[in-house]
């Protein structure tokens, strides 16, 4: 018997080879797992097809990004699940109430994606400002893949708008394209050239954050940059 880390209900957990590499590893009951909807659709960002329009398997969001940037900084994004109300509540408890056990239920799935799709990439995360780290006590992206050997090469520019992303409008997020909030850790600059990078974050909303991080890495000589998140917001 196990207690679900999400709803706290007691349930019987079957042990199998498959369960060692899924959400069952961290004791999530069947009822909660069914509310997590796997994300698939756009070949570049995983936006579900039912939230079109799509042109040749590419969503309108990604098409607009290519038009805006001429060359998209982000090679592709993979998200595990759709950002529905259930997952929104989970990630809110994880980030703002410090319930790290919830974050850890996604670790094994993230590791599996990295092994399957990004085995030769350097793994890094979206950095938080010192203020956010003090408030939360941890960086949610770091905690998601704790123990995987994160190579932290990005830092936040001091003085940039540090309001929570969830408090910003779509226009305010898109405006980050003109005021990149990221910079490089000085000691890492010589390491980046010619390497492929995978950026880990909790949520892909408009895609601005990971693209600005990708831009910073590409300008330092990175060969290619992709991102991996737990959630893909439907309305980006």
Automatic annotation (TrEMBL):
Family: Belongs to the ComF/GntX family.
SUPFAM superfamilies named in the record: PRTase-like
Name under which the protein is recorded: ComF family protein
Pfam families the UniProt entry points to: Pribosyltran (PF00156)
Phosphoribosyltransferase domain: residues covered: 134-232
Natural source organism: Shouchella lehensis
Signal peptide bounds: none
